[in-house]
Amino acid sequence: MRKIVCITTYPPRECGIATFAQDLIRAIQSKFGNSYSIRICAVESGTEKYAYTRKQAVEYVLNTSDASAFATLTKQLNEDSEVEIVLVQHEFGLYMEQEEAFLEMLEQLSKPVILTFHTVLSQPSLDMYGSVRRMIVACKYLVVMTQNSRRILLRVYHADDGKIEVIPHGTHLVSFKDKNMLKSFYKLSGRRVLSTFGLLSPGKSIETTLGALPDIVKENPSVIFLIIGKTHPGVLKVEGEKYRNLLKEKIKDLHLEEHVLFINQYLELPVLLEYLQLTDVYLFTSSDPNQAVSGTFVYAISCGCPIIATPIPHALELLSDDAGIIFDFKDSVQLAIAANRLLADESLRTEMKLVGLQKTAATAWENVAIAYTLLFQRTGEPEEELIYSLPPVNTSHIRRMSRQWGIIQFAKGNRPDSSTGYTLDDTARALIAMCQIVATGKGKVKERYVRTYLNFIRYCQQPDGSFLNYVDQDGLFTSQNQEVRLDDSNGRAICALGYFISCSAHFPALWKEEAMAVFERTFQQFSRIESPRSMAFMLEGLYYYTRVCPSAQADAYIGLLANKLVQCYRRTAGGEWLWFETYLTYDNGILPESMLLAYQAIGREEYKQIAWEAFEFLLKKLFVGNRLQVISNQGWMHKGEEHHGFGEQPVDVAGTVIALGTFYQVFKEEKYLRMQTDAFNWFLGNNHLHQIIYNPTTGGCYDGLEENNINLNQGAESTVCYLMARLALVTAYSVK
Question: What's the half-sphere exposure (Cβ side, CA atoms, 13 Å) at 354?
Answer without folding.
Answer: 9
